[in-house]
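HOLO CASE FILE
Compound: alpha-D-galactopyranose
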Amino acid sequence: MSQNNHSPAEVDLDTGAVTERLLDAFAKTFNRSDVAMVVRAPGRVNLIGDHTDYNEGFVLPSTIDRDVFVALAPRSDERARISSLNFDDAIDYSLDDGPGRSSASWRNYVTGAVHELYRRDQLDCGFDMLIYGNVPLGAGLSSSAALEISVLFGLTELFEIGLEPIECIRIGQRVEHEYAGVQCGIMDQFTSRLGKSGHALYLDCRTLEYDHVPLPLAEAGLALLIVDSKVSRELANSEYGRRRSECDEAVRILKDGDDSIDSLRDVTIELAAHLPDGLEDLLKNRVRHVVEENDRVRRAREALRAEEYEEFGEHMYRSHESLRDLYEVSTPELDFLVAETQDLEGVLGARMTGGGFGGCTVNLVELDALDDLSEQIERLYIKEFDLEPEIYALTENHRTEVVYSD
Ligand code: GLA
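Model generated. Tokens follow.
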């Protein structure tokens, strides 16, 4: 989820400029100019399929065009010197001592990832590392997944560790669970590590089989408009845990009647329409959301493959309604942002995205209407809530990669 609620003071989006800046700052920070490598890992936006990943269901996210960058050089001793440009903060410790826990969450994500590699005997030498990210923090665009993956990928490339992407993803998820106390599913790390430019990522969260579905935004005359409602996601962690327990409880009850049900993934659309009375209404709603959302993700994938973007947009609207009414993870601000788009020219679909309780909506829009739409949405939102939204327009998306090597 999020690193914390600060925003980077200065946001640089040009990869070349960010790399230059990192090389320069690396020399100043560590008093050496022999950077071996710069890598980046992107944040993500989920197009459809929320609260399905931890129910072994389906998701269809995309990476975004913002990343966490990591510059690295090996050391001849066992020290890890790690510095963050965003937080103007640094850590220096010996790998075998371990870093200890910190009250600064960015540190725990980074040292957690480093320690997980060390524990697996995959790091036998220290390094200097400088980090800069331009993924908005605390907005629900997975800045923390981008941070974990950039650190893991960077070290893997630097030391030629040969870590399979899936292992990298699992370690990233473990860092959230063990070092940040966030019981997230696997979608965010998976997308950051294996998302691909010009494509969305369809993922079966049970088998981990995946598929890159073409999403040629600009070419198709489309764009994604991400609107940050700027509402604090304070409830996100506790309510997220509550939803997970509700799903577990529903599985326990349903398994009594049919022991082939191991997760909500196994509940059919037919059963979801006729759930047993043993399940209280609230749990029925949670189950219906998950089962129908899984179905929508599969239909949305087909629509995307067929370039039926209007149909894709319809699935987005239905998904929002379900997250609002059945899963109850939306907010009045997110509902407003989605509802208003229904009267605006050039919007094909809109929904809240990610865990909910604040954060962003994602809108599939016509490229021609992009500027007008940004202005109108901003104006309407300020008028209603006296709060300025942050709007990000996207016509391309990134993948995890090396952007510089010496
Ligand atoms: C958060 C979690 C993900 C996923 C979404 C909801 O982003 O990190 O694993 O569960 O919420 O779809």
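CASE NOTES: Confidence is low (pLDDT under 50) at residues 1-9. The first strand starts at residue 37 and ends at 48.
CLOSED: yes
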